Every structure is written in structure tokens, then in C-alpha cells.
Fold this sequence. Notes:
Helix content is 46%, strand content 12%. The protein has helices spanning 32-43, 72-79, 92-100, 158-163, 192-208, 215-233, 235-264, 271-298, 305-326; strands at 4-5, 82-85, 105-111, 129-138, 143-148, 151-156, 179-183. Strands 1, 2, 3, 4, 5, 6 and 7 form a seven-stranded antiparallel beta sheet that branches. The model has no long low-confidence stretch (mean pLDDT 95).
Amino acid sequence: MTRIDLLPGLTARNFVPHRLHGQDSVWPEKNCYVDIWLELLPALGLDPLPLLAFTLAVDFEGDQWTFFKPPHNELRTLYGVDVQELTLWRPLLAHAQEHLSAGKFICCEVDAFDLPDTVGTDYRQQHSKTSILLVSLDVEARQLGYFHNAGFFELTGEDFDHLFHLNPPPAPAALPLFAELVRVDGLLRRPPDALAGMALNLLREHWARRPRSNPFPRFAQRLAHDLPALQAAGLAHYHAWAFASIRQAGAAFELAGEHLRWQSGRGHPQLLEAAECFERIAQANKSLILKGARAVHAGRPLDAAALLAQMGDDWARGMAVLQTVIA
């Protein structure tokens, strides 16, 4: 089989990330699933900003913040992109050959242990589930091109064999992870005004799904309770906790702010204040993750009460502004 390339011309060397992944962003990497969409949509010539209203519904869940994902029905409504679960009844490579050759992307969970772009963290060091999007494939050359986190990467050779469990054959204990088909044959390129109107309706829906109580006082209380255990467990444990909590909160509100700033330029200037509230939350969480790391490393108290209180105030103010505009 010849090389399959669903985004011809795209390579790891010429890839330019979307500005939501740029160096000016507060959180260059959000989470592995939403990051895929922040790059695939622009690669298809689509603007991801209308999609981001779903971030308003994130909440503190107790031991983590919501791992936010774009709803599949909204991808279909806004862009005509259809996402369905892929039944992995045979090896992933066989599915990849079948569906990429038919013009369908595959989003799949893999072990970051096998991804060379995670060198310095997971690659050949620890096993960690993550999501990638398969874009190009050359079985004979043992090459794969894929979106992961904030970038587009290529792997080959031994890494290809490991990712697809080719050498040795699939391990008896290896269970298939979750995968999805992403169909773009029904792609819709809506006029900007139409997208803005649809996105505003989605914004109303997600605002109505906001947490019933301000999540930041709850988060502050749980952090104060858990800090001694975090310090006792050490930095590696802290980083896992911080990814599930601080990073998810910060990245979600960064995207919420981006969405509202986009909406403010389309006939709703009052939303700019809400955007600024949520952008401050994103920045405050960046400060918190660093403060927390220092407190855990040094075993000293964490001085974050004022920071968390301001996040709570910004959340309340941002949601109140939204109520005056869209409720």
C-alpha cells in the first residue's frame, strides 16, 4: 500500500500550531483530546473558536476538575464533522489502513510510552494513556504522522512497531484502548455570521449547565485538606494531581475566555468583561500550579488563599455578566 496522507503537505517540520497553542497562550497544552480538535479544525480550514462554549460547564468534581471535551453533536452541528466509536475488533494498524485510505481520521488512545514526542516525560519511561489523531500512514516505510497535544509529529521504525504492537506480535495481556472514527466527508463551511448565531445558542445551553455553586471555594477547601498528603507523596504525585485539577481548570477557562472574546466582536461587546474574568482565572491557575509545586517540594505552607478567592470572585462575576447578556 502506498502512503496515505489525509492532510497532504503537512509535515512535522512545516507544522505551525494554531494560536491557541502558541507561546502567547497561558496553557499551550490543554488536554490531549481537546488539543486534537484545536489543530484538526484549522487544518481543515475551520475556525475552532465557535466550538468552545462547552468549557463554561466545567466543575470541580472532588478529586479533579472536569476533563473537558467538545460534544460530538456540536462538532456535527457547527462543522458537519461526524465522530463515532471505532470497534477495535482487529489490530489498530489494520483499522488504520482501512479507514485512513477511505478518508477518515482515527482518534485513538495509545500509551505515551511509545510516543517520541513525549521524550523527557513518558517516552520509554512510564506508561500513560493519551489520545492522538492518525493523519498519515506508510506501512512499508513504517511511518506515522499524528496530532498530539499542541503539535504534529512523525514516528518511524521501532516506535512504529511498538505503537502498533508489531514486534513482537500483539502482547497477550495488551487490551485495545478506545478509538473513534472522524468523518469529514460531510464538512460544512458555514458563513461567519451563521456560525456566530449557532455558537451563541450553544453558549446559552452551556451557561445553563454551569455548576450550581461556585466551584472555587470548594476547590480551595479540598486543596487545603489534601495539601499534607500531596507533600507526603512528593512531586511526581503532585504533577499527576495538578494535571487533573489545576491544569484542567486553567485551560478550560482560557478557552472559555477566548470564546467569549470572539463572541464580543460579533455584536455582543458586553461579553468582553466575562472573557477578561475567565482569562484571569486561567492566569491565576498558572500561578497556582507553580506555587503548589514549590510548596510540595519544600514542604512548606501554600499561600494561595487570596489567589483562590480571586478566582471565585472572577467566576461569579463572569457568570453574572453572561446572565445579563444571554439568559
